[in-house]
Amino acid sequence: MLAVLVVLAFAAIAVAMTAGGSASKARADAVNVAPRVTADPSNTARVDLAHPIGSSPGQGRGISPVARGLLIPIDGAEIPSAPELLPNSPREYRAGWHEGIDFPADRGTPVRAAAAGTVVRVDRDFVDWDEAALNAALDAAIALGYTPEETLDRIRGRQVWIDNGRQVLTRYAHLDSVADLRVGESVARGQVIGTVGSSGFEEGGPHLHFEVRVGEDYLGDWLEGDELMRVITRSFE
To answer: How far apart are CA 125 and CA 122, in angstroms?
Structure first.
């Protein structure tokens, strides 16, 4: 009986080691995945996985996605270079940081889709919160030391989200108005999807907050300085 138990124990250890090796290989394969393209061959937007750069605080991320082939969402606008308009800029008023690119523009300026895709969110009936509710939410965020997702979502104001395929999602926030869009509707690259505003956070003034999400990450995640600008500049045609 003792001999049988010893044999079973060794077998269990071997199975565990094999499983651990398979899991490690799966993680390695996930990091080294080849560049992916969107399902629509006429859409040049795609995502590459850049080199490992460490992890964001408390969130376990170690790869910054790099997009390609995006259209600047405001006609005639230039890619901003001021740090406060770029990802990872501190947002001390809510104990957080910026996750998108801000394009300052006049209220009512048309906003266009940066890549073709499918509408997955359109805030047709968005109502701004009152000043007391906003201040209470910001105070709570500061007390927590981070911005809760529901607070961050309200601060983004009126939004349109477009699923561009291959885990790429573009977000257009602080909109003053949205186009006549429906969830599930296809939109073309360059199609007007709304207008610039300051919904959600009036103090920021009229501008488009534009995010490129890739899975749980965002374009420029955990980058700064020249490296951040290179990644963002290369993302747009």
So the answer is: 9
